Predict the 3D structure of the following.
Amino acid sequence: MNISKDLRMTVYSSLFAALIAAGAYLAVPIGPVPIVLQNMFVLMAALLLGTRWGSAALMLYLLMGASGFPVFAGGTGGIGRLFGPTGGYLLGYIPAVLVTGFISQKLGKKLLGDIAAMAIGSLIVYSAGVPWLKFATAMSWQKAFLLGMYPFVIGDLFKIAAAAYCVKFLRPILHKSDI
Amino acid sequence: MGTLTPFSYRTGNFLLFKMDVRCKIICICFLTIVAVNADYLHLCLISAVLSWLLYRCNFNILRFLKEIKYFLLLLIFVFIVRGFTTPGVPLYIPIFEFMDKFKLMGKDIVDIITYININILPYSHITKEGFIDGGKVAWRFFIIIIMGILFSSSTTSSSLKDSVMWFLKPIPFVPEKRAGVMVSLFVRFLPLILEKTLEVSDAQKSRCAHLQKNPVKKIKNLTVPLLIKVFDSADKLAVAMASRCYNDNRTEITENTFLRSGYENQFYAGTAALALIILFL
């Protein structure tokens, strides 16, 4: 059946917004700290949907969370979370998706290009989240990095590696659907 | 979503459940912004109002605290960090008082501890200012969380969708009908994803995948089958929508209807009064 690209991408964007929300609950037990898949889905949305529809998925997720739907980490919602200590990470997802999608497209959607794009995307999330955490809680830079970045870097590397594989695997499936 | 979190919608007869969702959103946004400037007295006032609302909504506070335990840990950490790093008068716990009687090399032990605290290890003590400041910051964030939870537990997803469309309508270049459809799809997909995750997880366990040590393979084993399954569902949904001639300019079967309790104006007035107290008193 001939399905318009807009309709299919609308459905996929909603799906990725839901995946990002569910990602806060999907934890892979690795070592003492389980790895939560939320930011992996954010980066995958950028790679699989592109900048426009990836950011639409992100905006939908943030809109639902800000409206009070319990989709932010810990099962909470409300615009207050965007102003809270972890609000910078949530808002940092938007430029991260735009930049990740853009870089991936410019580098020809190759494996190494995707990995580089996701690494830069992750750095953008931290560059928004850590200063926000620092200023919202008035802690020192050292403590902000210690609490808001260092413990997650190793997990992020695993997630980037896994996401690169997943994207490589899923792209042909999505292309089959005329994306 | 029902099994996902205690913060999801529940039925109730209290005023909050019957109110216009747009009123709730506006009031919460307003209160959240002013709560960032709240002092201890204001925080007590807001907490009293929120406690009453939680009580009237029959909210299980213990379950709620358990669910947000990681966020509480973050708040405790923020409190401790601010306590130790804010400059000011050292705050000694009463256990040090008995040391008044002891001397070391002819000097009072308390004097030695004070000297070490101020000159050698400046961040080795909680200051009075840090204690007050840290408590205030943690309390503000906690209140913001409570407001969001009260909202989400008293609002249905369909009314939330209608309100999103209503708020987006005046914004140019934003297709509010498509946004409404996306909200509906989001609400439909979320439980589907969790259900499929459980299926994939069980299937992987039956193949001893949980014994896998490689973290990348562990993530991959969960996400690839999950994404294939959910994309398949999304494709079927897109076909179903296309076969029903879906487009953005469809005829609305029903107009957006918002529940009105009749107390919205009083709620606006109460919120404005609370905001004025916080900002000017």
Observations:
- Helices of chain A lie at 5-23, 38-66, 79-83, 87-106, 111-137, 141-148, 150-176.
- Chain A touches chain B through 66 residues (CB under 8 Å).
- Chain A has a mean pLDDT of 86.
- The first strand of chain A starts at residue 27 and ends at 28.
